[in-house]
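Quick board copy: two proteins, each given as sequence then C-alpha cells.
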Amino acid sequence: MAGLLLNLNYTLFLLVTSPWLLWRFFVQGKNKRGWHHKLLGRVQRRQSKNPCIWLHAVSVGEVNLLVPVLRRLKQQEPDVEFVISTTTETGFNLAQKRFPDLYTFFCPFDLTWAIKNTITRLRPDMLVLAELEVWPNLISTCRKKEIPVVVINGRLSEKSFRGYQKCRWLVQRTFKQISMIGSQNETYRNRFIQLGCDPEQVSVTGNVKFDGLETARDNPATKKLSHAIGLKPGAPVFVAGSTQLEEDLLAVNAFQELAIKFPELRLILVPRHPERCAALAKQIDQLGIPCLLRSKLAPLNQPPNTHACESLLQPRPMQSSGNIFNVYPIVIVDVIGELGAWWGCASATYVGGSLGRRGGQNMMEPAAFGIPVSFGPNTHNFKDIVQELLSNDAARVIRDKSSLKQFVDQALTQPDWSSALGNRAKNTVIRHQGASLRTSKLLWTVLENHHSTVAIRSTQKPNQAA
C-alpha cells in the first residue's frame, strides 16, 4: 500500500514538473539520456553468475569517493562484479571516465516497477548508497528481496537532520530497513540513531573522501595539465574551483589587480557547472581580459598541439587603471573531472560554493597537496573539516575581493608563510585517512553474513519440506 501511494505521488510530481523537464530537454538539451533506465528500469541484463555489488553515487562528489573504496574491494575479492548508477549526467559522465571497465547506468526513479526491473536484470547481492540516498521504494524492495542495503560515508548535515526530524514518523521505517551505515563521524552516527536506526546498525568508519586524495604535486595528471598550458617551474598560479558566477567574477577582479604586480600570474577558473563556461568566457572578454576555454587545448590523453597551444596561451593586452599591459589569458576549465589535478598546479587556491547559500565544496583536495587554501564563510556542507582546518591555522576565510587579493598576494610573496599554511592543511588531511579500508571491511562483513544466511536458508528448506 505504501509503495502504491508513493508511486502515485511520484507520478503526480512528474506530471506537474513535466513542462520544466520538457523545457530542459528540448531548450537546454539536458537530461536526454537514460530515460529507459529511470522510468522503466531497462538496464543491461547481467549475464554472469558471480556475486554482484550495485553502488549508487548521486553525482560527481559521490563518484569520486567510490574510487578508493572500489580499489580496496577489487583487491580483496576480484571475482565480485560491480555496477554503478548515478543520478546526474555529470556524475554519469565521470563514472564512465573513472570506471571504464564497469557497467554504468542511470539510477531508476523510486517507482516500484522501475526498481524491480533493475534488480531483476542486475541480480545484485548488495546495494551500496554513497553518503545517503533515502528512497523508500528502493530500500523497501531490496529488503523484500533480501538484498542488504549499506550506506557508506554516511553524513547527515544539520539542515538535513532537521528536515528528517519533521517527518521522523515517515522516514523511521525506511532507516530501519537499511542493513548497515558507515558514518563519517560520531555526530552523524548520533543523528542516524535519533532518526530511528539501531545503535548496532551504525558504525563510524570515517570520511572516505580523504583516502581518494592525491598528495603528490608531481602526479602525472597535474604534470600533463601544467605542460598543456606551458607552465614554467615555479610560475605563480591561482586556481579558483567549484565556483559560482559571483565567485568567478571575484577571482577575475582580484586577478586583474594582482597581474600588475605579478606579470607571470596565471588564473585557472573551474566553475561548478561547466555548461555556463562559454557564457562566462564572453562576460570576461567583455571586461577586456583575455581568456580561453580548456576544451580548446588538447585532452589529457592526447599529446598537445604545441604550435596551436602556444598561440592560444601567449600573453595578451589587458587594461587596468588606465594602463595597458600584457597578461596570460585566464583558462576556464569547461571539462569534467580535471579539478583535482588542477589544484596541484596552484600556488594559492579558492574553493567555491562558499559565498552564497550552497554551503561550500570540497576543500580537502587542495589541502591534500599542501597548498594555501581559502574559501568563503558559508561552508556548512563541510562544517567539521572546516572547523578543524581553521583550528589548526591551516586555511583562510575570504569575504570579499580585498581579502581574496590579500590572501593570494601573501601566498605569492611570503613563501615561508605559504609553505607552513599548506603543510598544516596537508597534515590535517593525512590524519583522517584510512576510511576506505574500514569501509571495505564493513561491506565484506555484510556481504559474507548475507551469503551465510542465504546458504543456511537454502539447506533448511529441504528439511522443512520433509
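And the next:
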Amino acid sequence: MGLITLVGLVAKNGILIVQFANHLQETGLAKLESVIEAATTRLRPILMTTAATVVGHLPLVFAHGPGAGARNSIGIMLVSGMIIGTFFTLFVVPSIYILVARTHRAAEVEEREAEGAGPEVAGAAV
C-alpha cells in the first residue's frame, strides 16, 4: 500500500513539471527555458507535497509496540522514498524531458506551413 502511495505522489509531481513545460513551450519558450521555468515554478508545490507526506508518515517510523514492525517498514519506505522521489522529480525528470520531449513550437510551425502550402499549390495548378 505504501508503494502505491509513493508511486502516485512521485508521478503526480513529475506530471506537474512536464505539463507546465509543455504549456510554456506552446506559448513560445524554447525547450530548455520552459523546463527550467516549469521546475522553478512547481518547486514550491512539490516541496509542500513532500513535506506533508514525510511529516505525516514520520510517526510510522517511530512506532513501537504490537505491529510496530509493519508500521516501521511502511513508514521508512514512504519517508525515504518521498525524499529520493523528490530528488528524481526535480533533477532527473527535467533532464529526461530535454532529451525525450518533442519541441511543441516546431510542430506547430510545420502544421502551419503544411496548411499554407496546400491552397497555394491548388491555386497554382488552376
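Board note added afterward: The chain has five helices and no strands.
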